[in-house]
Amino acid sequence: AQTAIFARNIFYDNFNIFPTRLTFFAPNDGNIIFEFPFIHFLTALTYKLFPISEINGRIINLLFYIFNGLLFYKIQKLIFRNYIAKVTSCLYISSPLILYLGHAYMPETSMLTFYLLAYYFFIKNKHIPDKKNETLMFISLAIGPLLKPPAGILFLPIFIDYLSEVKFVEIIKKSFPFLICALPLFFWMTYGNSVNSSEFSSGSNWNWVNILFGKGSLIGTWIDINFYKSILFYFLIQHLNPLTFLLSIYGIWSNFRTKNTIVKFHLVWLFANLLFLFIFAGANKGHPYYQIFFILNLIFFIGLAIKNIDRFTINKKIIIIFSIFLNLFLSISIFIY
Questions:
Q1: What is the pTM of this model?
Q2: Which carries the bigger pLDDT value, residue 120 or residue 1?
Q3: Which of 87-91, 190-194, 208-212 tops mean pLDDT?
Q4: Nearest 5°: CA angle at 166, between 161 and 168?
Q5: How far is residue 250's CA from residue 323's CA, in Å, rounded to a whole number?
Q6: How confident is the prediction for the chain on average, in pLDDT?
Q7: What's the rounded Cα separation, in Å, for the pair 190 and 202?
Q8: Average pLDDT of span 51-64
Q9: Cis omega (within 30 of 0) for bond into 27
Q10: By C-alpha distance, which of 78, 76, 80, 114 is closest to 93?
Q11: Bridge partners of residue 32, in order along the sequence
Q12: d(C-alpha 73, C-alpha 65), whole Å
């Protein structure tokens, strides 16, 4: 509903996004800034031709979901053989969370487009270094966090990969393009703080600290057993499934001491995801879609695990079919629920 109201008001305000408005906060004007209204603005454009309806936004979101699936397959082909690439891509598009967000009118799927583009150009640049791919990677890195700030997670593993040696001068030199990429989000957050604290805002405490960290004690969340139960449930039922979760654990464990730079990149990426999970524990506990960034990462390790299944007397085809079936079963169950 929130995304739909933003889109409708952007249309009513003659496509002005400075600021965006949530009208159910009346009697105040409801001026408020969350993430940059990308999917909201695209939806508002459709209202020039079609009636005002949330369906327009859902259709746009579905197109992003299809594009993301194709893009993910291209990434997987750069990493795995064609057969494994098809399997991991099927696991991606059938992930309960990915599938749900593909039909829901929320910004996560459109954000993932730029997150995946940064991932794609990074992997492509690792295979064949090229300034064009590198530039496109940094542009994508700059846009992703604008649409959803947690997309900045990808900065850390790419930055660590860029460091040829851990020296002060090297760190400063390599940091420069990443700092440039962070500027759009910095300016948008600064503008957001000025709007959200204004008397013309909602009157609610919508500061960025509360939005990102969630309410409650951070330490209190860490020592709360319910936090770990919730996160485990999300991974077993909504993000992956019990079988693919075990495969991802095996893939991580069996490649933990690797020398391969692509695998090391994914291990650092996993660490960045875990760091985000615990620093923003309050937000993660209440919002399972915050863990969407784990899915891309863990599917890579699932692919590695599937490659190694040949070492055991296990039918690989049965495991693959059952994994995809479980994803679809859980997806349908979530939709029905």
A1: 0.92
A2: 120
A3: 87-91
A4: 120
A5: 15
A6: 89
A7: 17
A8: 95
A9: yes
A10: 76
A11: 20
A12: 12
